[in-house]
Amino acid sequence: MSEMQVWQGRQDPEDGELALRWHDKVQPWSAGAQEAAGVVLLGFACDEGVRRNKGRIGAAGAPLAVRKLLANTAWHLNRPVYDGGDVICSDGDLDAAQGRLAERVAAALWQGHFPLVLGGGHEVAFGSWSGLNRHLDGKGRVGIINFDAHFDLRMKQEQASSGTPFFQIAEQCAAQGYPFTYACLGVAETANTQSLFARAQTLGVWHVLDEAMTQRELPALLAGLDAFMARCDHLYLTIDLDVLPAAVMPGVSAPAARGVELAVIEPLIAHIRASGKLRLADLAEYNPTLDQDNRSARVAARLVHQLTK
Asked: 56: which strand partners?
């Protein structure tokens, strides 16, 4: 099934023009077209990085699965949404796939769109960031905000993986003479070795443990976000869905023992959007083969709605 064929679903003509759903509104996008500025959905159908990181593969099917749930989601946006199709990694060449994603992200940004990438494993992050980096070409400081149980700061050995993207970004920033400005919120102490915590400290990463990501701590979290965002001219938000509790998000390679509730994540997303600095976002690690009754897909679709409204 092609990407555009997914956009079909329920019709409620008796309720008139206000009864629209996403499948009624999403239009195809191509890099060479001139359209009104809106949201461009880009799929990254890849879990090669997860395989290399010894995780459970299946996230390559996520973009299509999320689109299917989005199709019947009620429409509340006031800007157009386009579907830019999928970048597929079927040959194991992760570097090439990330390069193709970067090209599409940069093209969408050059046209004035907001790219929202549907991963795929968290190796999507290096491709997403590379597109933004190509578009900005050194103009302004980019802040990366990652909702994640993992730092994903593993050192790249012979090959990149889903565990290395932010270390790769840090290396690229150093090579270009740019500051590496990274926040990782929702970190699970049990899922990150002492060496990763030490690397995060060396790289100046602002991080918050999952146990401190509660509704009671929201005022402090929002204040921390404000301080972080004040240092940045542009923001890239990446959400690894394994940051959510396993009961809410069972369909990931590494379900969270504790996790951070949506009631905390969603107001933080709204706060980031309200800054006016958000240029790019992606979702990572949803694995449809591990889902239960599409519960995880529904949450992913809800987060797409939150990111675009």
From this structure: none
